[in-house]
Specification:
The complex is a heterodimer of chains A (592) and B (138). Chain A is of the alpha+beta class. Chain A folds into 4 domains: 22-192, no CATH class; 226-338, 2-Layer Sandwich (Beta-Lactamase), CATH 3.30.450.20; 344-414; 423-587, Heat Shock Protein 90 (2-Layer Sandwich), CATH 3.30.565.10. Chain A contains 16 helices and 13 strands. In chain A, the strands form 3 sheets. In chain A, strands 7, 9, 10, 11, 12 and 13 form a 6-stranded mixed beta sheet that branches. Chain A has a 5-stranded antiparallel beta sheet with strand order 2-1-5-4-3, sandwiched between helices. In chain A, strands 6-8 form a two-stranded antiparallel ribbon. In chain A, strand 3 (299-306) and strand 4 (312-323) form a beta hairpin. Chain A is elongated. The termini of chain A are far apart. In chain A, 29% of the residues are buried. Chain B has a single domain (25-133), classed as Rossmann fold. Chain B is 39% helix and 19% strand. Chain B contains 5 helices and 5 strands, in the order βαβαβαβαβα. Chain B has helices at residues 24-36, 48-58, 74-83, 102-109, 122-133; strands spanning 16-20, 40-45, 62-66, 91-96, 114-117. In chain B, strands 2-1-3-4-5 form a 5-stranded parallel beta sheet, with helices on both faces. In chain B, 49% of the residues are buried. Classes of the chains: A alpha+beta (592), B alpha/beta (138). Chains A and B meet through helix 11 and helix 12 of A and helix 1 of B.
Chain lengths: 592, 138
């Protein structure tokens, strides 16, 4: 009568269960209805005699109620219903059995018994057995039993026994099936999860590979855009892997003829490499080439490249190690700038400066040497007038000499060949010497020179000759630019400089000791707009030109270069018409 | 090679000095300073190759060499003198009107005992010659 709803496994926690097909909701209810209709039909045709219409009617009513119940609750979760519906049907069959006293209706037992046997728990089995016994006994109990329906005592025993065996078998196999179903469902869910993971990994991989491809494209396009520098990448053994248009242009070979076919060593001058190998003690020419880059992480120096046509190029090559994607050393990068013309120009400039130096200093040497002979000749003393005239010659020769020296010094600074010979220098002595040098000129110009230096001296680490030159420049400038009756004040003191560059008179935390040398004049001053250009070579202020102050505009350039080379700074404060103060700040040894 | 500037007579017991400079005026000035220092000018020449020959034949106590000379530069002469055991003991004073500070270092590393930049004062040169010949056994 009822093939009611089988309990479905509980929803898995891992993911949503597959939705049940539409017919699973109605199939139990439909089966109940069909069986019920068939029963009603059989009773209606009178093939099964109704002994007690009350009992048979009650049985039908309960069956109808149970069937309606199945229809009504078909969408709700299975629970009590799964036991209540077959029990109700058992009751209905019992009443029908009693009401008809016909064993035919016992066929209706199959439905509820099947349902109870296949109940997810074993509780269905005793209910089925008890129910069967009840159904068989009911006609006797209510007194409607006829001879045909009187069950034999053996049947009373065998019936429930057969039901027990059958329902245990169905129950067990049902449980096993359900367990397998559970397992399959779980595996299915796990498979779904794995599939989802695989899909998302694949997406990530796809995105990453597209980003990588875009990056590689960017790098390639950047490297290809470089046409004035050679960019060459090699393996560890020097085999060329990257060859940009700049390398094609510089060395005259297209990429296809070089990549994987040639070594970087093919483009280097062999003798230069051999010499480098000897001086660095490298076992191979390639090792000599990358020696410094291997040791220091990178290296920039001039190498001689040999182009395809055999021409030699002087190239400033930056060499760096190249790593693969795992960070392992994979080879070398060589980025080269052709310096052939630049180096030739530099050599010409150096030669020119040397020539000028030689050609100017040699005649000056003769002039000054013979002047010295004449002026110091004790056997033939000069008249006062002669001595005065010759002193003028000597002074001007020295002036020319200073100019040559300044020009040379500027050339040295520019070519980076200016070196200091550092030693402990007493700045106070340097300032005193500068005052002494300027004393005659100051007195002639009517300028008062005031000296304010610490009596116990102030020692810095520096080049005494260069510091003296810088100091002389500042003092002679101040005297030159100060009108008669003006004053030039030279002061030197120990101060402290804070991290943000401020100079303070007293020691404070974080400040470093400095020597503060200032030269203040009451001269014509420098217009504000010109102060920024003051340290530029050959720059002359408008006040200097207007007042015909002699000079070529190198003194401050040189002073600034010397100060910078000592790790110091040179600043000025100037008010037009009132005066100028130059301040040189030099670092002091903190321990001193 | 015939020197246009023949060897000067030297007095026994005085230090013997070779002077080499391509500038006649400067060379005369150097010779004057050498004599002022109480030494004899054994020979004065105008180029580097003559200086080498003179040094090998005259074996002076001191050679005053200009750096920038035709034939061979003062630095080359200096190196050559130091390489030859016969002339390796000659004291060498280099004179230069050069432009670069590293020339001093190059001169000294070539084996010169002292280096004087042009223009020099007579007094300074006399002082250098005296101090360089002070330790030489006459």
């Amino acid at each position: 009568m009822t093939l009611a709803v089988l309990d479905r496994p509980a929803a898995a926690p891992l993911g949503p269960a597959a939705p049940a097909p539409w017919w699973s909701d109605v199939r139990g209810a439909l089966a109940c209805t069909v069986v019920l209709a068939a029963t009603a039909g059989v009773l209606g045709t009178g093939r099964v005699p109704v002994v007690d219409p009350l009992l048979a009617g009650a049985g039908l009513a309960i069956a109808v109620a149970a069937t309606v119940g199945v229809w009504a609750t078909r969408r709700s979760r299975p629970g009590v219903r799964s036991m209540a519906v077959p029990v109700a049907h058992l009751l209905a069959v019992a009443l029908l059995h009693a009401g008809t006293a016909s064993p035919t209706v016992l066929l209706l037992l199959l439905g509820p018994l099947w349902l109870l046997a296949s109940h997810p728990t074993r509780a269905g089995v005793p209910v089925a057995v008890g129910g069967t016994a009840l159904v068989l006994l009911v006609p006797d109990l209510v007194g409607t039993a006829s001879g045909a329906t009187h069950p034999l005592p053996g049947a009373l025993l065998l019936g429930p026994l057969a039901v027990a065996v059958g329902s245990i078998a169905v129950n067990e196999s049902g449980r096993r099936l359900r367990a397998q179903e559970h397992l399959i469902a779980r595996l299915q869910r796990e498979q779904d999860v794995l599939l989802e993971q695989v899909r998302s990994r694949a997406d990530e991989l796809d995105t990453a590979s597209r980003i990588l491809a875009a990056r590689a494209q960017t790098m390639t396009s950047v490297i290809d855009a470089v046409t004035q520098q050679s960019i060459i990448g090699t393996d560890r053994d020097g085999t060329i892997r990257v060859w940009n248009p700049g390398a094609e242009r510089m060395l005259g070979l297209p990429r296809l003829d070089v990549v994987r076919k040639r070594s970087i060593l093919d483009f280097h001058e062999p003798e230069e490499l051999a010499a480098a190998a000897e001086s660095t003690g490298s076992p191979s020419p390639l090792e000599a080439l990358v020696h410094a880059a291997r040791t220091d992480g990178s290296d920039v120096r001039d190498w001689t490249y040999v182009a395809a046509d055999g021409s030699h190029r002087t190239v400033s090559v930056a060499i760096t190690p190249r790593s693969d994607d795992r960070g392992a050393h994979a080879g070398w990068n060589f980025v080269g700038t052709d310096m052939t013309e630049t180096r030739a120009t530099e050599r010409m400039k150096d030669q020119f400066v040397s020539l000028i130096s030689h050609e100017l200093r040699t005649p000056l040497s003769s002039i000054l040497g013979y002047l010295e002979l004449v002026m110091d000749d004790e056997e033939q003393p000069l008249t006062d007038d002669q001595r005065r005239y010759l002193s003028t010659v000597e002074r001007n020769a020295h002036r020319l000499l200073r100019l040559v020296g300044d020009l040379l010094f500027t050339a040295q600074v520019e070519s980076g060949r200016f070196t200091l010979q550092p030693a402990d220098v007493d700045l106070a002595a340097v300032v005193r010497a500068a005052e002494e040098t300027a004393r005659v000129a100051a007195a002639t110009a009517g300028v008062d020179l005031v000296l304010d230096v610490p009596a116990d001296g102030l020692v810095v680490s520096g080049d005494a000759v260069r510091l003296g030159q810088a100091c002389d420049n500042l003092v002679s400038n101040a005297v030159k630019f100060t009108p008669r009756d003006g004053q030039v004040r030279l002061s030197l003191r120990r101060s402290w400089q804070t991290a943000d560059g401020e100079v303070v008179a007293d020691e404070r935390p974080g400040a470093v000791p400095v020597a503060l040398l200032s030269v203040a004049d009451t001269g014509m001053g420098i217009p504000t707009g010109e102060q920024g250009q003051l340290f530029t070579r050959f720059f002359r202020s408008s006040t200097a030109r207007r007042n015909a102050v002699p000079g070529v505009g190198l003194g401050l350039t040189i002073t600034k270069a010397i100060t910078t080379a000592h790790g110091g700074t040179l600043d000025l404060v100037s008010v037009e018409g009132q005066g100028t103060t130059f301040t040189m700040t030099l670092p002091l040894d903190p321990a001193a | 090679m015939d020197s246009a500037l023949p060897a000067t007579d030297t007095s026994p017991g005085r230090f013997r000095v070779l002077v080499a400079d391509d500038e006649d005026d400067i060379r005369d000035l150097v010779c004057l300073a050498v004599r002022k220092a109480g030494c004899d000018v054994v020979r004065s020449v105008a180029d580097g190759s003559q200086a080498l020959v003179a040094a090998a034949t005259d074996l002076p106590d001191l050679a005053v060499l200009d750096v920038s000379m035709p034939g061979a530069t003062g630095l080359e002469v200096c190196t050559a003198l130091r390489e030859d055991p016969a002339t390796a003991g000659i004291r060498i004073l280099l004179l230069s009107a050069g432009a670069w500070p590293d020339e001093v270092a190059r001169g000294l590393s070539a084996g010169a005992d002292a280096y004087l930049a042009k223009p020099f004062t007579i007094a300074g040169l006399v002082h250098q010659v005296r101090s360089l010949t002070a330790g030489v056994p006459a």
